[in-house]
Amino acid sequence: MAEKRTSQTSRAGRPWDLVVVVLATLLAAAMVFVPFFSGSLIQIVFVLPLLIFLPGYAFVSALYVRQAAVRETTDEETTDEETTDEEVIPRLARGLDSPARVVLSVLASVILVPMTALLLNFTPFGVRRIPVLVAVTALTLAFAIIAVARRSSVPRRERFAPAVPSVGAGGWSFRGDSAVGTALNVVVVASLFLALATTAYALAAPPAPQGESFTEFYILSENETGELVANDYPKDLTVGEPTQLTAAVENREEHSQQYTVVVLEQRVESNGTGNDTRVVESEELRRLNASVESGETAYLNHSVTPTMSGDDVRLTYLLYRGDAPANPTAENAYRNLRLYVDVTGGSSGSGSSSSSGSGSGS
After folding, report:
1. 301 alpha carbon, distance to own chain's centre
2. pTM over 0.70
3. Which residues contact 78 (CB under 8 A, 6 or more apart)?
4. Exposure class string for 227-259: b at 16+ Cβ within 10 A, else e
5. How far apart are CA 206 and CA 195, in angstroms?
6. Same domain, 95 and 43
7. From the first residue on, what is the mean pLDDT of each consecutive set of 10 residues in the chain (362 residues)?
8. Are residues 165 and 312 in the same domain?
9. Inter-residue contact 356 to 286 (CB < 8 Å)
10. Residue 342 phi, psi dihedral angles, 5° rounding
């Protein structure tokens, strides 16, 4: 009897649950960096536990390293039902049972993940998918390592380990928990997986028409220190002389996206009221292409060389998802920006023959 109890205690003392946490965390992190799984249900199923369970479980495991209860037993003890307080480790020291750990793990994750995102908001990384994922992964692994170290510091018979299924003469059984505890474990785990499946389905469903996915598009110029800023645009240009500008495309579409930027030089005239303008002449100067990952920003450095002169000239930037059409206009563009300039030199009439170019940036 003593040998059998020793064997079971030895197996229960191994931190196999924390090994599973570490492997699941690394697998979830890896799934995000594999483009093939981007936005898929498989990716959601693997990543979701990293957001609502694994960090909390590692944290709770680092705090509570003992079993729910440990009794001092001997080979002579058989049917004696008298149990004193001295035979049981105090509640604060003896830890938690499996159901309590699962519940606290979910609650702790719900607190830890938003707190991590909040802290990232005050760093240069910001609240973006990759930085949040890396931070949560590092936090989970750190808590798991602390939990393993703390468990190893307590006697083996007192260490917590979830019930391990085994096959005996009576068939399958769970070591480490009573029949009631085992049944409760099954109910809690089943409920958790049901919640995960429901959430995964909701995330995998097609987005609503009024979703939050969008693309930010803006023009930048260099200031006196060489820093890119969204002001101080060059207003006075010269025909035939190139001017450096930067088109910024920030992808918030929740998936990788190919973009095309078309730069037009246009001559416009007012309708007399000042509220509307009409394009009387338009020329395509160049096209810029970029493939941007979700949450990333592409900076497309380029030059524009005006061919029209006058104070009625503007640069129009048209953004397209995918390829641009043969006849790009503000009406068929996904986004459009306008920069009014005063161009000197050359003729103030019609511009020269059409020219085009291509470029890319990152």
Report:
1. 27
2. no
3. none
4. eeeeeeeeeebebeeebebbbbbbbbbbeebeb
5. 19
6. yes
7. 43 76 91 76 84 90 78 46 45 64 86 89 82 90 93 84 54 48 57 53 45 84 85 90 94 91 93 73 94 93 93 94 93 94 71 36 36
8. no
9. yes
10. -115, 110
C-alpha–C-alpha distance, residues 217 and 116, integer Å: 28
Residue corresponding to tokens 């007192």: 158
**Domain ranges, residue 86:** 2-204
Give the rounded distance of the alpha carbon of 81 from its chain centre: 54
d(C-alpha 69, C-alpha 17), whole Å: 19
CB neighbours of residue 318 within 10 Å: 24
Inter-residue contact 42 to 31 (CB < 8 Å): yes
The answer on 200 and 224 residing in a single domain is no
Q: How many domains does the chain have?
A: 2
Question: Could you tell me if 258 and 294 lie in one domain?
Answer: yes
127 and 268 share one domain: no
